[in-house]
Write a structure and sequence with these properties.
The protein has a 5-stranded mixed beta sheet. By secondary structure, it is an alpha+beta fold. It has helices spanning about 5-15, 25-30, 40-45, 60-65, 85-90, 100-110, 140-145, 165-180, 195-200; strands spanning about 70-75, 115-125, 130-140, 145-155, 180-185. It is built from 9 helices and 5 strands, in the order ααααβααββαβαβα. The two termini are about 40 Å apart. The chain has 2 domains: about 1-45, no CATH class; about 50-200, Aminopeptidase (3-Layer(aba) Sandwich). About 30% of the residues lie in helices and about 20% in strands. Bound molecules: coenzyme A.
Length: about 210
């Protein structure tokens, strides 16, 4: 969990707005009132359903690059309601991605959470998803059963471009790739994005071939 969202999460545990007094102060104001802890619910304790366990996978360096209005974290099952499709649509055609289909795919990606790592940047002022990216970790036989990272589906919502969020997403995915033992990470991009990836410390090498079905 991002440090930026931690205070909000603590507030939500007590169902309080930031301006409300702390539980101890409140109890003192209303003698005999139930302790605030009585308001804890299973829903707030369990928290969002994340696609992967982020423990150790978001470096302090990556988090330090992010403005406090944003949080970087794994994709969550409720992101569908936070403008996920709107942002993803700015990458390519998404088609009719219903909530049912989203949840089905989310559950599958979660089952394969040692292979797929889908990350999101949330704007904490609007609670909208403004950035997305994925790294897939491929297990190989070559290079002494080495691993290769593949970065996919990078997009920053046009309302949030030019604020370094794209670069932060790439840095976060590169870090996950390294942590997961990849000896290199690859991606395919269009000609006009080469400059962006170069600024993210990546270099052009070889070519990509494709076939469409
Ligand atoms: C490409 C994209 C992800 C960049 O996101 P962004 O958040 O606006 O980029 P950043 O603010 O992190 O930019 C980082 C640096 O790259 C530069 N940059 C951004 N886009 C660039 C581009 N297309 N070409 C060259 N440089 C670019 C920025 O000027 C910035 O440079 P600086 O560090 O000198 O200031 C975003 O424009 C986008 O989502 N585009 C549509 C979807 C897309 O094409 N995705 C990539 C698929 S391969």
């Amino acid at each position: 969990m991002s440090f930026a969202v931690l205070p909000r999460a603590i507030m939500s545990l007590f169902r309080m707005r930031p301006s409300e007094p702390a539980p101890a102060e409140k109890a003192a104001v209303v003698p005999g009132a139930l302790p605030e802890v009585a308001y804890l619910t299973i829903e707030t304790l369990s928290g969002p359903d994340y696609q992967f366990d982020s423990e150790g996978l978001f470096s302090d360096e990556v988090r330090g690059m992010l403005h406090e209005n944003y949080a970087i974290r794994p994709l969550a099952s409720d992101d569908f309601h936070k403008g996920y499709v709107e942002t993803l649509s700015q990458l390519t055609t998404v088609g009719n991605l219903t909530e049912e289909l989203f949840q089905e795919r989310f559950a599958r990606l979660k089952r394969f959470n040692e292979i797929y790592y889908c990350i999101a940047i949330e704007d904490l002022t609007s609670n909208k998803i403004v950035g997305l990216g994925t790294i897939m970790i491929e297990d190989k036989f070559i290079h002494e059963a080495g691993r290769v990272g593949h970065i996919e589906d990078i997009v920053v919502n046009d309302c949030a471009r030019g604020k370094n969020l794209g670069k932060i997403i790439i840095e976060a995915l590169k870090f996950i790739g390294k942590e997961k033992g990849a000896y290199k990470t690859l991606l395919a991009c269009s000609q006009h994005n080469i400059g962006f990836y170069a600024k993210c410390g990546m270099a052009q090498k070889e070519v990509v071939m494709s076939v469409y079905y």
